[in-house]
Design a protein that fits this description.
Blueprint: E1 4-8, H1 12-24, E2 29-33, H2 36-48, E3 55-58, H3 74-84, E4 89-94, H4 99-108, E5 113-116, H5 121-133, H6 141-152, H7 157-167, H8 175-182, H9 189-203, H10 208-218
Parallel strand pairs: 1-2, 1-3, 3-4, 4-5
């Protein structure tokens, strides 16, 4: 059961919106902060007082200002908070949409849920909190699908190099010269074309632009 929640969000309007969502769920024991250092201090104080938070809702990105912080963002906060309170549940509420980053949050930082700031995010926040309260993780369907795609196909270093060059605006016919300059083999145009065609076939694309866009969405490049 979730009865006590800490909100770490540097945008006041978003902070108020999250508080309202919690009120609609009849969760009234809430606290909010605008800085990660303050969030960690509140968590530590609550643990010391024997009144720990059940859930931390945090953004990932906090705009720097004149108040210098030890913790630069949500990832640092999550890692530090878990040291102070290992059983603290964490829900990330962020505009981040790269599956690679969300996958990292899930597997490396063991977050309990992720909701993207977008349309219907208040509804998804409620769904996420209800799921977490039942000791289940929550990730939106489209995020799960992208993560599954990422895990289903493993890009080699050679693949990433080729796609990165395309993303930088290098024409396909000019890629071999860049590979040769970096001492990367194979570097022939036929090898580059063959690998690009294999990747597009496996992922269901017909154009290099689609492959580049896909890899950007995944956070692979």
């Amino acid at each position: 059961m979730i009865t006590k929640v800490l909100i770490a969000e540097d945008h006041e309007s978003t902070n108020i919106s999250v508080q309202k969502t919690l009120e609609e769920l009849a969760i009234i024991n809430t606290a909010y902060v605008y800085y990660c250092d303050d969030a960690l201090n509140r968590i530590a104080q609550a643990v010391s007082a024997g009144s720990s938070f059940d859930l931390l809702i945090t953004d990932l990105f906090f705009e720097p200002d004149s108040n210098k912080q030890t913790l630069s963002g949500g990832i640092d906060l999550i890692a530090a908070a878990r040291i102070v309170q290992p059983d603290l549940k964490v829900l990330v509420f962020s505009a981040e949409n790269r599956p690679a980053t969300i996958d990292q949050l899930c597997h490396n930082y063991d977050i309990d849920g992720f909701v993207r700031k977008a349309r219907n995010d208040a509804r998804e926040l409620k769904e996420a909190i209800n799921e977490i309260a039942q000791h289940r993780r929550y990730f939106p369907r489209h995020i799960r699908q992208l993560i599954e795609k990422k895990n289903a196909y493993s890009f080699s270093d050679f693949d990433i190099t080729i796609i990165t060059l395309l993303a930088q605006g290098i024409l396909q016919k000019d890629i071999p010269a860049h590979l040769q300059y970096k001492g990367i083999k194979p570097s022939g145009l036929s090898s580059v074309e063959k690998r690009l065609n294999q990747m597009k076939d496996m992922l269901g694309f017909t154009k290099n632009e689609q492959l580049v866009a896909y890899c950007k969405d995944l956070g692979a490049i």
